[in-house]
């Protein structure tokens, strides 16, 4: 056989197998080829150009060209797929006769992870927990695991960043690992995890995969050499996870589903699209073992209600008769009559809702209501439409008083709307770190982004009008750049687990108390410290009061942050100049665009335009002016920002000698004479007003 050329977008792997290959030319579309998902090391995470998109490869395919009457066409020589898969499965069984029920190596939990011991988790999960240094369960995990592992339904409410993903993920993985039968040709879907956004869905599956990949690397470790590994038959994953989200190839996602997966993490919109053409998937969802709604309240906000409701309807019992059929875990081939466990997790869930879940007013009536045309529109409706099999779902509410995580310091800055840019710039220079800035609109981000660029601040945008790939890329860059800014809409407010976000800044105030809590939840995660700041203009104060009031709090509880006003004046000049440059740039772009359009229109109508109109003389003058502005900004940016009372020439004198700070390396790199400190240390206590003068640390 000729050495086949590499297919676009795929890697060809040659394998030394004894499989008998029958060659047929019978595919003519790339979609029809037997694609396989490429296993990638998890440490790649969202890095790289592909982000965490799944890669696929195809084996044993040769591209050939056929001359037909219609010209030259491309076709594929493909090994008979059915035969190949059968042989491959045979081979796995032959080479590792015990693969189906491979006994996991025992793990000494008692000594190595005593705090996890009582949960009796599968050894491979314990091994990963150990390798990740997760020495104890977080409070929500400790509270939820006993119920979830014993088959109960759980509604878990816990602060942001408290480890909710594993609170439901570990019980699912534990059960699937314990009952796994990897040699089966097609897996049946066992767990469906629904998440409100693509990013969250991708993050959840990446989190679960971390545990499964560790399983496989443990299994691989016996292979003696790299060469052996390369030629060894690839065993199927013990438990497989797939992600179905919008913004990525739906054909590819359908192919992955066709091959069969154990756990599906999905956003409702894309999943419902696929279910509509896939009866087999609908049937599999009817027979799920686990249903999870992650960030349940957000689903409603994200406008997923109709799709979500349709998906959930598939999980309702049709009659009482099939409610109590116990699931036979020993025999995976048997369809599960009714073993569904439901987990709902969220950082916020009102007490009313919790009571309603307890009362369980739902099952069949709501399904019918829905059909009769009263679509659900609130989280209340959604939860009441769920068919908990558990007569009393366990509600675990660990949400902190007023929604505030104990390791979070909150603050505010009161300023005019027009001054927000300069206050933000001040904050970013004064407290360098990883800052997530929330804006209310995409337009706001588009305006602010070029300003940050002109002011040499590293910022990345994140909003719904960016392509998925770009969103992931920007998230990656933000994650990997310690001093950077993510300018985001509320798309980034929930669920995203970005390690070490130092500051959350509400450039515009959030729409609701929930949004405030979730935005803040991007910092102070996993018991780390964090800081949030509300930028509040006079016309926003009333809303802030109402927002905090609904959390049972008062505006005066949130301390103001002290500002060095002398420094602020210097920064104002830079910001104003940057704005001027940006406005001029915008005008130039628009003028060029208009001229181009007029020229094309004139050409099409075969008329001549006034040469004055087409002359770019005026534009040239403007360009010169603009260059001058840029040079001026460059000069300003190059000048050190010196705090009042500081002498750079005589660092041991002046009203604020800076020599000690310089020697100790405790100085702020952008502001001379200003001590390096964390934003949380510069809060004015309680109800104090903003100082007229700059605070001691940074001025005279
Ligand atoms: N037992 C543990 N010990 C230490 N770290 C943990 C533990 N469990 C989870 N984590 C880490 O804590 C971080 C937050 O976890 P996770 O994203 O599950 O939080 P969450 O409660 O779902 O947050 P959100 O409500 O914002 O979605 C993750 O980086 C995760 O790896």
What does this structure look like?
This protein has 700 residues and is an alpha/beta fold. The chain is built from 24 helices and 21 strands. The strands form five sheets. The protein has a seven-stranded parallel β-sheet, sandwiched between helices. The chain has a seven-stranded parallel β-sheet with strand order 15-16-14-17-18-13-19, sandwiched between helices. Helix 3 packs across helix 6, helix 4 runs parallel beside helix 5 and helix 9 packs across helix 12. The longest helix has 41 residues. It is globular. The structure holds adenosine-5'-triphosphate. Keywords: ATP-binding, Helicase, Hydrolase, Nucleotide-binding, Nucleus, Ribosome biogenesis, RNA-binding. Its EC number is 3.6.4.13. One of its GO terms (molecular function) is RNA binding.
Number of strands: 21
Q: Termini distance?
A: 82 Å
Strand content: 5-15%
Give the helix tally: 24
**Average pLDDT reading:** 75
Unreliable residue runs: 1-25, 40-54, 79-99, 219-227, 320-337, 361-377, 687-700
| Rg (C-alpha, Å) | 30 Å
Please describe the biggest sheet, giving its number of strands, its sense, and whether it closes into a barrel.
7 strands, parallel
Q: Percent range for helical residues?
A: 25-40%
Structural class: alpha/beta
Strand order of the largest sheet: 8-9-7-10-11-6-12
List keywords for this structure.
700 residues, seven-stranded parallel sheet, globular, disordered N terminus, helicase, binds adenosine-5'-triphosphate, alpha/beta, disordered C terminus, 24 helices
């Amino acid at each position: 056989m000729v050495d086949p050329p590499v297919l676009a977008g795929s890697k060809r792997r040659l394998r030394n197998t004894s499989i008998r290959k029958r060659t047929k030319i019978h595919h003519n579309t790339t979609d029809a080829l037997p694609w396989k998902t490429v296993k990638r090391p998890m440490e790649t995470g969202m890095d790289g150009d592909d982000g965490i998109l799944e890669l696929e490869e195809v084996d044993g395919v040769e591209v050939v060209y056929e001359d037909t009457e219609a010209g030259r066409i491309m076709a594929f020589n493909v090994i008979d797929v059915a035969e190949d898969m059968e042989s491959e499965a045979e081979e796995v069984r032959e080479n590792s006769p015990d693969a189906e029920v491979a006994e996991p190596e025992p793990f000494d939990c008692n000594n190595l992870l005593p705090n996890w011991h009582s949960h009796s988790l599968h050894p491979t999960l314990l091994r990963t927990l150990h390798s990740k240094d997760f020495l104890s369960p977080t409070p929500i995990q400790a509270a939820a695991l006993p119920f979830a592992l014993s088959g109960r339904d759980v509604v878990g409410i816990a602060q942001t960043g408290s480890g909710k993903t594993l609170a439901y993920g570990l019980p699912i993985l534990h059960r699937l690992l314990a009952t796994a039968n990897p040699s089966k040709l097609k897996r049946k879907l066992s767990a469906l995890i629904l998440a409100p956004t693509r990013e969250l869905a991708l993050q959840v599956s990446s989190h679960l995969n971390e545990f499964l990949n560790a399983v496989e690397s443990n299994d691989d470790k016996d292979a003696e050499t790299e060469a052996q590994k390369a030629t060894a038959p690839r065993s199927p994953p013990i438990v497989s996870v797939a992600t179905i989200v919008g913004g990525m190839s739906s054909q590819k996602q359908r192919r992955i589903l066709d091959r069969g997966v154990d756990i599906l993490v999905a956003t409702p919109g894309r999943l419902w699209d696929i279910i509509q053409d896939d009866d087999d998937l609908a049937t599999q969802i009817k027979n799920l073992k686990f249903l999870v709604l992650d960030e349940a309240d957000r689903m409603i906000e994200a406008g997923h209600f109709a799709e979500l409701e349709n998906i959930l309807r598939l999980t309702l019992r049709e009659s009482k008769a099939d409610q109590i059929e116990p699931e036979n875990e020993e025999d995976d081939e048997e369809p599960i009559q009714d073993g569904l466990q439901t987990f709902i997790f969220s950082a916020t869930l009102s007490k009313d809702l919790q009571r309603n879940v307890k009362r369980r007013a739902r099952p069949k009536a709501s399904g019918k209501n829905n059909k009769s045309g009263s679509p659900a529109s609130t989280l209340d409706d959604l939860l009441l439409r769920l068919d908990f099999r558990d007569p009393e779902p366990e509600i675990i509410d660990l949400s902190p008083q007023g929604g505030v995580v104990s390791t979070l310091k909150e603050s505010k800055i009161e300023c005019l709307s027009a001054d927000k840019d300069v206050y933000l710039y001040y904050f970013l220079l004064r407290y360098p770190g990883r800052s997530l800035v929330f804006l209310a609109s995409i337009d706001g981000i588009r305006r602010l982004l070029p300003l940050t660029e002109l002011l040499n601040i590293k910022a990345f945008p994140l909003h719904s009008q960016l392509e998925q790939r770009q969103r992931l890329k920007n998230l990656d860059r933000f994650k990997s750049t310690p001093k950077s800014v993510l300018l985001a809409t509320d798309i980034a407010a929930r669920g995203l687990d970005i390690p070490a976000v130092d500051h959350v800044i509400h450039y515009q105030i959030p729409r609701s108390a929930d949004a405030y809590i979730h935005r803040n939840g991007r910092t102070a995660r996993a018991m780390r410290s964090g800081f949030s700041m509300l930028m509040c203009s006079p016309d926003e104060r009333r809303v802030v009061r109402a927002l905090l009031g609904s959390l049972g709090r008062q505006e005066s509880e949130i301390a103001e942050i002290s500002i060095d006003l002398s420094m602020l004046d210097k920064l104002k000049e830079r910001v104003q100049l940057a704005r001027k440059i940006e406005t001029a740039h915008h005008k130039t772009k628009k003028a060029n665009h208009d001229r181009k359009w007029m020229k094309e229109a004139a050409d099409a109508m075969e008329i001549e335009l006034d040469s004055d109109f087409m002359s770019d003389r005026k534009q040239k003058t403007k360009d010169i002016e603009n260059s001058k502005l840029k040079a001026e900004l460059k000069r300003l940016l190059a000048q050190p920002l010196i705090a009042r009372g500081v002498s750079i020439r005589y660092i041991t004198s002046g009203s604020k000698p800076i020599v000690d700070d310089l020697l100790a390396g405790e100085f702020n790199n952008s502001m001379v004479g200003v001590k390096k400190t964390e934003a949380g240390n510069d809060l004015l206590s309680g109800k104090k007003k903003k100082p007229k003068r700059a605070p001691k640390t940074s001025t005279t």
